[in-house]
């Protein structure tokens, strides 16, 4: 009959053969016990209530328990057959679960004032704020000029005569989508508008005079830097909560790193194709 020649039938038959061969070679696997505890049932009920905003009926609860049992049986069989070994999604998920367990094991006692103060003083970069800049700019669109930098240098001479107030910067150059004036902006805020590194190029400019040309990811700019508030470290008491959180996060990270190093001692890592072991 034609059905016996169907490759799908052959594939299914081979699958059934492998399945029963596995059980014949591993009979003890069929004796595994699955316990559905009160805690598991309570967790299933809680998930149902969150989803449906009511408690499950007795029949629905039986269905939840059966679904849980089915999932547990199939997952155990998959692990026993090694189906997890070459699946990157499963590997990543299992690694994440162990990482979460290490997080739970890394709970730390609240630090005392001396420990917090030492951490605060030794890590000023974590807690410093600024610099903040205020400036005006004249924008030269590179699509309109063959040599925008030369055009900017020529315009700069006019600006430095004092005839142009920074508030009137919009009367010169080309329209800019965010306007011409920026007040008390951080480096990250400025760089999000003008492109990476633009704020850093403004910090060395002289105050209260036109400077440039300065290049951004958008084109050429002439800059009037009106205010520069340098980096400052807030008083400890004003950021005590932040310092505490940073401290605990750092201690937790170190604890997890140490736990991983201890786990790694159990393994010998060989990178095939290199001499690294």
Strand content: 5-15%
Overall geometry: elongated
- Kindly, what is the distance between the CA atoms of the first and last residues, rounded to a whole number of angstroms? 57 Å
Order of helices and strands: HHHHHHEHEHHEEH
Query: Helical proportion?
Result: 40-55%
Low-confidence runs: 7-12
Specify the structural class.
alpha+beta
- Number of separate helices: 10
Query: Biggest sheet, in brief?
Result: 4 strands, antiparallel
Our Rg estimate from Cα atoms comes to 33 Å
Task: Give the overall average pLDDT.
Answer: 83
Number of strand elements: 4
Strand line-up across the major sheet: 2-1-4-3
Task: Give a description of the structure.
The protein has 277 residues and is of the alpha+beta class. The protein contains 10 helices and 4 strands. The chain has a 4-stranded antiparallel beta sheet with strand order 2-1-4-3. Helix 4 crosses helix 10 (240-264). It is elongated, with a radius of gyration of 33 Å. It starts with 6 loop residues before the first helix and ends in a 13-residue tail after the last helix. Residues 7-12 have low confidence and may be disordered.
Describe the structure using short key phrases.
single chain, 277 residues, alpha+beta, four-stranded antiparallel beta sheet, 10 helices, 4 strands, elongated
SSE blueprint and pairings:
Layout: H1 7-25, H2 38-52, H3 58-80, H4 88-105, H5 113-122, H6 124-127, E1 132-140, H7 148-163, E2 181-186, H8 187-194, H9 198-203, E3 210-215, E4 220-229, H10 240-264
Antiparallel strand pairs: 1-2, 1-4, 3-4
